[in-house]
Amino acid sequence: MIKKVCIALILCFIGIHSHVAMGEQPKVEVFQLDTGKVIRVADKTEVVQKEVEKSIASITGIYKKVNPLPKTGYLVKVPLDPAVQVQQKGLDVLASEAVVVLSPNEQPVLMLYDNENKIYFFEFTYDISTLRKELEL
């Protein structure tokens, strides 16, 4: 039940706010879990793309807790262009979008979408302080 609610929330967040017009710069969106609202929309910069790529490169394994979404914190949605190849313990995925799950009480988690909109949750070790600074979080 919790998993279905989490996925519904995520899909709602992604579906409502991911419409990008042709030729327009892809947008990074910051969703605040406490309020259930997008609090910031910004153009995706090269710095943001590289920070997410470094986070993906530092993946240590699949996230194993029951609920990957905290009650408080942020979801930072970053469209990946070009898409990033993720190879992890028998999993080979081409990620087209990343969501960094930020919680004040836990380590960040990476949520990756492949080109078929399948969702994968990963733990990683990269320090995302530059990403936080770039997005003013």
TrEMBL record:
Signal peptide range in chain numbering: 1-23
Source organism, top-level taxon: Bacteria
Keyword terms of this UniProt record: Signal
Upper classification of the organism: Bacteria, Bacillati, Bacillota, Bacilli, Bacillales
Organism name: Priestia flexa
UniProt name for this protein: Group-specific protein
